Amino acid sequence: MTARRTVSVIAVAFVVLTVAAGCAVEGHSAYAPESVDFAVATAQAKEQSLEGSLFKDDQAVIGNDELQQVLSAKVALPDGARVAVVRFGRRPYWWGWSDEFVRTTQQIDADFLAKLRGCPRLSRVSYLPALVTPPHMTIPHLRQAAARFQADLLLIYQTSSQSYSRTKIFTRDKTKAYCTVEAVLLDTRTGTIPWSMVATRDFVAERTNADVDFAETIAKAESAAIGKAWLEIADEAVTFLNALPR
User: What is the pTM of this model?
Assistant: First the structure.
């Protein structure tokens, strides 16, 4: 009886193993070759990252190869660079005349250029002449104008201001101006922008007897706020240039 039981147990075990093997083949278990190949392909797909835009409209503006070249390029700014400063857009105009207003504006320009000229990495700093400034303010046109002026770098800035005035009967009128200056540094050779900054400053002014009207008071307040923002822009630009490796 013992021998027969042993044979029966062996036979049952053989049947169970045969059925399990058949189920594994039919169901493609985790140890099947097809599953192993699929897992490897999935892992490889996760490791590969996209290096180009999937949208055709993006590639119509700039190709994937050009984009990769721009992003991977190491731009080195020249030592002893020549800088031209240009305003983006039209300068706001005040329909009036004031010796103090003109002197304030000239002093702001002088202080701004003096800050930049104090940078040892720069050999020349000047405003881009109006005769050279292109009528269409685009990066390609500005870059061409900078090249004609033999400027290695072009500091492009744009100002915006908003003033709040308060008119009183028994006291002098007051105004407060908030001015924002946006600036970018354009490398003429490569067309890249290695530095940018936004500065916002405010200034409070009270109308004086020397002011022609309250509009002059507002114009002087905006000019003073822009001047403070310009000086901050110049300081940060000089800090950036001095930190560059020679």
Answer: 0.70
